[in-house]
Amino acid sequence: MTSCIFCKIVEGTIPGEKVYEDDHVIAFMDIMPVTKGHVLLIPKTHRENVYELTEEEAANLFKAAPKIANALKEEFQPSGMNLLQNNGSFAGQSVYHFHMHLIPRYDKTDGLKVEFNTKVEQFPMDVVSELATNISRRLQE
């Protein structure tokens, strides 16, 4: 993908401040970090989103993620860490090469707000059961 900025980082045609690389993935500093130590982890193979990843590519990403997270933890001693990954523009994806954000968290005012609305009504259990059945059926196909 010659127009993909992340593919250009993989190819080395544009710079990226790499923190980790193996045969399958690269991790580099986000140039517009939310917090100190914000890193992006990508597959070297161009995949637009999670729907396009193979199981092997996903395994390679998650094999590297704990290594990078632990290095960030040791270096910056954050209070926590978010792993964030968006798929599609509606979900906030702006670069269409799969990437996972590793965002060290320091305090509630560090620039990132991730919240779940706890005031939403709970689904009735029969609806939850039906949804689970439908998803399980799709996984068997």
Automatic annotation (TrEMBL):
Domain HIT: 5-113
Motif (Histidine triad motif): 97-101
Xref: InterPro entries: HINT, Histidine_triad_CS, Histidine_triad_HIT, HIT-like, HIT-like_sf
Domain of life: Bacteria
Name of the protein: Protein hit
Species of origin: Sporosarcina ureae
